[in-house]
Structure formats: C-alpha cells, structure tokens
Amino acid sequence: MRKRVLSGILASEETYLSHLEALLLPMKPLKAAATTSQPVLTVQQIETIFFKVPELYEIHKEFYDSLLPRVQQWSHHQCVGDLFQKQVSKSLLYKPVDRVTRSTLVLHDLLKHTPSSHPDYPLLQDALRISQNFLSSINEESTPRRQSMTVKKGENRQLLKDGFMVELVEGARKLRHVFLFTDLLLCAKLKKQIGGKSQQYDSKWYIPLSDLTFQTAEESEPLPIPQAPDEELDAIKIKISSLRSEIQRERRANKGSKVMERLKKKLSEQELLLLLNSPNMPLRVHNRSGKSYIFLISSDYERAEWKEVIREQQKKCFKTFSLTSMELQMLTNSCLKLQTVHQLPLTVNKEEDESTGLYGFLNVIVHSASGLKQSLNLYCTLEVDSFGIFVNKAKTRVYRYTTEPKWNEEFEIELEGSQTLRLLCYEKSYNKAKMNKEDGESTDRIMGKGQIALDPPMLQGKDWQRTVIPMNGIEVKISMKFTSREFSLKRMSSRKPMGVFGVNISSVTKRERSKVPYIVRQCLEEIERRGMEEVGIYRVSGVATDIQALKTAFDTNNKDVSVMMSEMDVNAIAGTLKLYFRELPEPLFTDELYPNFAGGIALSDSVAKESCMLNLLLSLPEPNLVTFLFLLDHLKRVAEKESVNKMSLHNLATVFGPTLLRPAEKDSKIPTNPTQPITMGDSWSLEVMSQVQVLLYFLQLETIPTPDSKRQSILFSTEV
C-alpha cells in the first residue's frame, strides 16, 4: 500500500484543506471557551459546517450521524474529545482507509488549535495516537521495522524479546509467536496466508507484566503434558533425513522446480511436526486477575532466558491496565514490523549454502569459572542441538563452596547436525526446605548461562580450541576438539593384544574363560547397584578422564578396578561400557551380518520380519550372542525405571544401536581438502536410524526364543 505521509496529503489535497478550513473557522473561539464549561461547538454550528461542505459530510456521514444525537444530549461534563474517542474505539472512522487518513487530519488540526490546558486536549491527543498507530500498521511494505509503538501519554512500548513457542491449550499443542514488550506479554498466532495477502497475527491473549507471575507445578492445577512416543519422533526424524537427501539429489540433478517445491513442502511439514511435538519442559505463566497458561520449551536454557528478561522488566512495572479491543488490534498489527524472529528454524527458510551442522564427537573440557562474588556449590551442564531441539548432554561434578571452581573435567559429546553448544552454571542446593520445587521436580538455581557457535572452520584442526564463555558476570573457561564421525567411528584393532579394548570379543572371552567379558559384567553390576534411577543413564556423558582411567585399569587387569568403580560417578561407568562396545574391532552384530540386519528391519511383513531377524540373531557367534542377550536383559530392566531415569527403550536403542551395529570402516572418509568443513550428510543419519530400529526391535520383543543351551548358559553358568 502507498505510504501515506501527513505532509504529502496536505500538499496534494488542496480542495479538502479548503473544506477543512471552513470547519475550523467557527472554532476560533476555542481559546475563550477553554476556561468555560460550555460545549466547544453547538448543534447548529456542527450542522452548518457539515452541510455547508458536502464533500465533508459525504466522507464523515457515519461519524456525523452518530455524533449529532450525542451533541443534542450534551451535558456540561462532556467534551468533543469524548466523542472522537468513542468513534475511534468503534472503528467508525476506519472504513475505508481513506476516511482514516482524513479523520487523522481533522484530529491533527483540531489539536493544533486547542490549548493544552483545555479539557479536550488530552482526549484529542489520545484519539490522534490511536489513529496514527493504525495508519502505521498498514504501511508494512514501505516502512522499515520499528523498535517501539506509541502508547498513552506519549510513552513508548518497546519490544524486548520475541520467539516461537509451543503452547499447551486444552491438552493440544499449538504453535505461537510470543512477544515481550516493556509492559506486557502478548501471545499471538500467525494467520495462514490466503491469496498472496501479507502475513497477519491474531492475538490469543496478553498479560500486563505487573500482573504476571510464574507458577510452580504445586501451585497450579495438575495438568498432564501429552508427549509423543519416542518412536513417533524418531519416525519423523527418519522422514526428515530422507527428504533432505532426496532434495540434495534433485538439486544435483537440476530437476524441475515443481518437484523441489513438493519435496520442500513435505520437509517443512515434518520439521514443523517435530518442533511442535518435541518440547516437554513447561513454563507456567499466570495472570493474577485471570487464568494460567503453559508453554512447552525444549531446554532449561530457553526457559531461564525468558524468566530472566521478564523478571528484570517487572522491576519497572507497577501499574496494572487493560487494552481496548482497538488498542489490542493496533498492538497485534505492529508485531509484524517489530518482530525480530521472522521465521521458524526450518530448512526451507535457510540459505542453500548454510551449514547443516557437525556430525561426530565433540570433546569438551570444562576448566574453571571466575567472577563469582560469594562461595557457592557449583556445577555445569552442557546442551547441544539436534534437529533444531536442544538436549542436555553432560554434567560436571559439584565443586563445593568456592568462588573459583576448578572442574577440569572432559566430556565426549556426540553431535548430530549440531550448530550450537550451550553451557549453564547452577548453584546446588542441599537444603531441602529451601529447594525450589518447579514442574514437579527439585531444581537448582541458574547462576549463569552462555553459548558458542560450533563453527566448522574453527574446529577443523586436530588441536584443542580454548575459549571463554561469558555469562552474567561469570566467565567459564572451556576447551573443545572435534572429531568427525567418519574418523571417530572407525573401528581399529588394539596394539595391546592382552588388553580388552579394541580386542575381538571371542579372544577376550576365551582368555578369561567366560561367556561374557569381565568388563561388561562389572559395569552392568555396578550400574544395576546404584545407577538404575540415575536420570539420563547412558545418555548423559561421563567425565572423559574417569572413563580413560577405567579403560586403562581394565586393559592392564588392575586388581583395584572394582574399588575405582565404586568411587566414580555412575555416568563414567556407563561411558566406559559404551566405549568398550564402540572400540570393538568388529561390531557385536558382525560386519558380515550387518547388511542382512539392515535389510530385515526394512521388511513390511511382520511375520517375515520376525523370522528373518531371529534367524540372523541366532547366527551370531556364541560370545557375541550371549553378550548381547546379557546386555539386552539389563537394558530392559533400565527401561522399567523409565518414570524415574527418563530412559525409554527407544532412548536406549538410540544410544546403543550405532555402538552395537555400526560396521568397521575400511577407509577413512575425511575430506582430502582440509579447508572444507567436516560435516556429514543426511544419508548417514538414515543409516544410524536403521541401526537404532534394529536394536529397538529386539528390545521390544517380550522373549527371544534361543536354543536352550545358550539361554541356560546365560542364566545359570557361574562363568558368565
């Protein structure tokens, strides 16, 4: 729409101005009337003005028709501004848009000729503000993005933060765009574009910051959060990876745009479905004078970010208020220009040459923190993104009562298309009476948070990259080293034939005269003893230095290994077990049978699939089969504690699938050109998904009919 500038209208509409002058001429006595309680204009004056100027009456006929009866019933308490305000709030001046522009001119000149001390002045000023905001809201294409909009008394309502979030509405997940202004929180829905029309927002609700509180689970009504099964989310990820690969093939083949558009549309639908169903961490906001609302967020980092900025702004908000329907509409319309987050994180919204993220392993050493003003019990957690969702991957030990914690702990974090590393620093509370209960679980206070982009060129080299992450006055020093998946997952035989890591499983069991390797039995026994209720067991990374210490102890047949394990964090023991299977020179499911397992899991006929998968399983060498069944029984027992440890069968399959099935790589796939970022395509993700599905299939079987001799050896042999 053509930009409507006041000065331009004044210059181009001379005819209208001559009529406007006729309207303003009888109002010269305004100054004298300012000190009286009499109406500014009489009924006769209004009739004379409107009928003397036919064009003016035609333009404002609806306004005049509603104005005249009110003027006839005027009391000495009423002002012209009262009537203008009422007409503005009822939208009578806004049909059509030309009428808005001309009405704004009338208001502008009325205000110019009205003394500031007159009772009409603030009312006309408020009416002019509403009209000008409306005109600004329709100039989307020609006006650059604003930082604020005008509110009453000439104040500015500024946008502080906005973003897409999932709202839980009557048990259903709804995608919302949330806007935090200097005085209120607005929840809006982006309307569907029809017929090429510009985007528009529909207001769902708002809360003045002076009335907003954060509810805990105990304070609010119990409301179950519907969660999509892990299998469904995994199926969505498989579709996303498949569609991305197909788009890449079509792009290389230079196929027609219609095919690409169809694929991109399907991809956006699946990515949107994943973004809608993945977040499960509630953020509860409550209006003191109304109802409560629940947002679902994927990580503690984002939840803390919203809470911090809202609480900080609330220190400046003291008065409650309510918006008229017109003011709310003006505010919602302004969001299109004020928004800072314009698009969802979908592939279709990214540039073609934009990085797809890193695939592989990121070693992170959390060294120390500085800048603390008092001694606290501190620990850190690490989050990385995958498919646009952030997941907690590692946690340091608690460093007790200090202003300068020195953790010096190393973690190995698996990356799946990851682009950002987040770090959160918490104060651990040991006083149960003062624990902050939120969302049904005890939480510790976040002291600081920060993030760093995982830049492929920066992480290209083999050397450690040292950096500092600033957060709320605290600085945390870390080091990072990235290893691409092609290289890190390459299975290699150990140079220590008498060790256990990197040594064929049949050689180890033969040497130990056991059915299951000693390291597997020891790790599972310790985890069953004290790790079955550990949140994120097998998913959360253990300290790399502890894992390496245990690896050395097992490789050298250290007699004190059981004592070492009893003193270590249980996540380090879980990490040692995963490392053992990952470093086998040949996967537990063997290189020879791996293609058959991948083919069997893809069969659509359930009977044929079961027959194929069980026959393949029983074809494994006996040490491999017995060890797998021993591990399988343990993983099922872990999943029985899912309500506590949050590890479902699917989560466990995701962790162990690639570890147990990934075939040995004969040659490294590292790019020969070192200037190219080390990343992996979605074809690798599809292969990983297949490996997860194979293990999940066996985990979901109630029983596995194996030959009696092999099952007996597992259950009753003292040599296991």
UniProtKB/TrEMBL annotation:
Keyword annotations from UniProtKB, A to Z: Cell projection, GTPase activation, Guanine-nucleotide releasing factor, Synapse
Domain DH: 1-86, 91-141
GO biological process, one term: signal transduction
Residues annotated as domain Rho-GAP: 503-697
Domain of life: Eukaryota
MF annotations from Gene Ontology: GTPase activator activity; guanyl-nucleotide exchange factor activity
GO cellular component: axon; dendritic spine; membrane
CDD domains membership: C2_ABR, RhoGAP_Bcr, RhoGEF
Main localisation: other
Domain PH: from-to ranges: 158-315
C2 domain residues: 342-468
InterPro entries registered for this protein in UniProt: Abr/Bcr, C2_dom, C2_domain_sf, DBL_dom_sf, DH_dom, PH-like_dom_sf, PH_domain, Rho_GTPase_activation_prot
PROSITE patterns to which the protein is assigned, alphabetical: C2 (PS50004), DH_2 (PS50010), PH_DOMAIN (PS50003), RHOGAP (PS50238)
Entry-linked SMART domains: C2 (SM00239), PH (SM00233), RhoGAP (SM00324), RhoGEF (SM00325)
Localization per Swiss-Prot or TrEMBL: Cell projection, Axon; Cell projection, Dendritic spine
PANTHER family per the UniProt record, alphabetical: BREAKPOINT CLUSTER REGION PROTEIN (PTHR23182:SF3), BREAKPOINT CLUSTER REGION PROTEIN BCR (PTHR23182)
Name of the protein this chain belongs to: BCR activator of RhoGEF and GTPase
